[in-house]
Amino acid sequence: MRSKRRLILFVAAFIVVFGFLTTAAPLFAANKEKVLYNFQDNGKDGNSPQVGLIFDEAGNLFGTTQFGGTGECRDFNGNVVGCGTVFELIHHANGHWTEKLLHSFRGKDGAWPLGGLIFDVAGNLYGTTSRGGAYSPCCNDDFGGTVFELTPGANGKWKEKVLHNFKNNGKDGSGPTASLTFDRIGNLYGTTSFGGASGSGCGGYGCGTVFELVHDTNGMWSERILLNFMNDGSDGYNPHAQLIFDTAGNLYGTTEGSNVFGGGTAFQLTLGANGKWTENVLNSFGDNDGAYPLDGLIVDGAGNLYGTTWQGGTNYGTVFQLSPTGAGGLWTENVLHNFDSNGKDGYYPEDSLILDAAGNLYGTASAGGSHNYGIVFRLKPAANGTWREDVLHNFGFSNGGVGPAGSVILGAAGNLYGTTVAGGTGQCQDDYGDIIGCGTVFEITP
After folding, report:
1. Exposed e or buried b for every residue in 217-255, given b needs 16+ CB within 10 A?
2. Contact at 8 Å (CB) between 87 and 53?
3. Rounded-to-5 percentages of helix, strand, coil across the chain
4. pTM of the model
5. CA dihedral over 310, 315, 319, 322, signed as positive or negative
6. Handedness of CA 228, 234, 240, 243 (dihedral sign)
7. Coil vs helix vs strand at 219
8. Each residue of 245-287: pLDDT tens digit?
9. 3-state SS, residue 389
């Protein structure tokens, strides 16, 4: 399963050993976090959000939770944990936020969403579930998954439509764990972590795919596999990341695994005149330059790519830049930041970055920081070509969230918004029966 499972288990294990820190102490930027919402374990609300958020035009926030809701999906130990939800946080004039559940998954229509949401121009929402669907309704196995659409109705309710059920039949992909991407004409692009033509490769689950869902004039969607990862040669395998387009129409993404140095890849897909897509591996990661890029890339105006690796570098993960050399499709990598072994600047970054108008990068590290529960950080370019890290927030006090679970986004006023997988006032328990919280939505004012 995707890296997010690693995160929730890491947070749970840390809380079991060390407990929550509940005594106040001076902390850099401690007074700049505001918890907008605490997820609850009440059989209706979602819990354990694993990814970041998106805004609508009115300034409301939308996201997914992996567990919770009214569905009765069970985990691998047979416990009912829910099938996950789609939620909205509505911003009111008095500064308060209230939650509205838009959809609870029930297994047959998908389960356990690990990717975020995107809007189309009409205001419909699109996303993926990592399990469930018509071919794996019980969701506690390693197959299946869906692509779904949520459409708002005049009555304020949202209607779900499953656009594709993954079959894991040796051709179709399985287990999509990332957000989707639109092209200019409204087709959807995404990745599956498993399945595809590799068949029994990658531990018997398949090595994953890049897929396109084509929107037909009759309103139907049909799947087209653009790339099957094969776990051979220089190809990567097991992608977990959202894809992005550049201005020329090329697609970019990452894979967790690879054969060359074993630490994953960054890749480019280029559409040829024959309608086929060709892969170019831009970088194969090893320990020294980072390992295991678990989420997607972003691109700046000059065509440079930026991302994170979960491990590797000098210690516990990196922030990197990939720049085109202009010669033969080659790219050069520059490590912008190595997360420190002392953990105070965070470690284990596993989500995409964002770029502001001044060229600063923002992201999260799922662990480390002053209290070992993760951080929000900013990287600022310096005049000498180096980058300086500023820790904007250390998670881990009182009822605040712990374990930032996804990318942050910038609001119109320059505030940062995101989610944590655990912490908060909710009473969710881990496998040992210890309360670890159900996660939060937070706002940080830099």
Report:
1. eeeebebebbbbbbbeeebbbbbbbbbbbeeeebbbbbb
2. no
3. 5, 40, 55
4. 0.92
5. negative
6. negative
7. coil
8. 999 999 999 999 988 888 999 999 999 999 999 999 999 998 7
9. strand
